[in-house]
């Protein structure tokens, strides 16, 4: 899953990016509203973390612009503690959730996981497909109850396909959602990761639709 963090505090932005990357997310960062607005308009994100007090263009203006253009990526806004008017304005502008500063990193992670699950149509923290189960809270993957060890990129590919199970996912879409903007992307490596997942989880789990992409379905 690919996230955008729009935060002008360098220390907080770095802390957020490092923790999110440690949890297996691909993360892009923007230090002001203008850059954040541009990235949100031109790149596909699974969730956006948006501070409201931004230089150049404020967060509410950015959010309203995204929604006016039909950009539906889930957005969690960061507000100053006690600024209830900002929370109300943020929700009315199209935010999906909010968190007051200072906040617990664990709470932010839980809210991000929930936003991603709901946006992909999943109610439970555990997503199952046949004998494969992915626990979005712990990142644990099991096959028939036994833990399966995956590399970081293998997990990102499986995570995205599990959230989109039963749907056709193109190789381009998959590439866009598992790599950050500044990563040297090579779509051919997607085939390598899919091949490894098939060996670890079963050859029939991920189906190739020739010329179109991949579909994850229970065998």
TrEMBL record:
The chain positions of domain Response regulatory read 2-116
Q: Which InterPro entries match?
A: CheY-like_superfamily (IPR011006), OmpR/PhoB-type_DNA-bd (IPR001867), Sig_transdc_resp-reg_receiver (IPR001789), WalR-like (IPR039420), WH-like_DNA-bd_sf (IPR036388)
Q: Name one Pfam family in it.
A: Response_reg
What range(s) does the OmpR/PhoB-type domain occupy? 124-218
| Matches recorded under PANTHER family | REGULATOR OF RPOS, RESPONSE REGULATOR PROTEIN CARR
For this protein, the DNA-binding region equals 124-218
State any GO BP term from the record: regulation of DNA-templated transcription
List the keywords (alphabetical).
DNA-binding, Phosphoprotein, Plasmid, Transcription, Transcription regulation, Two-component regulatory system
Q: Which GO terms describe its molecular function?
A: phosphorelay response regulator activity; transcription cis-regulatory region binding
Kindly provide the name given to this protein in its UniProt entry. DNA-binding response regulator
Does the record bear 4Fe-4S in its keywords?
no
> Where does this protein come from, organism-wise?
Azospirillum brasilense
Q: Does the keyword Kinase apply?
A: no
Q: Name one GO cellular component term.
A: protein-DNA complex
In-chain residues carrying the UniProt-annotated modification 4-aspartylphosphate:
51
Organism's domain of life?
Answer: Bacteria
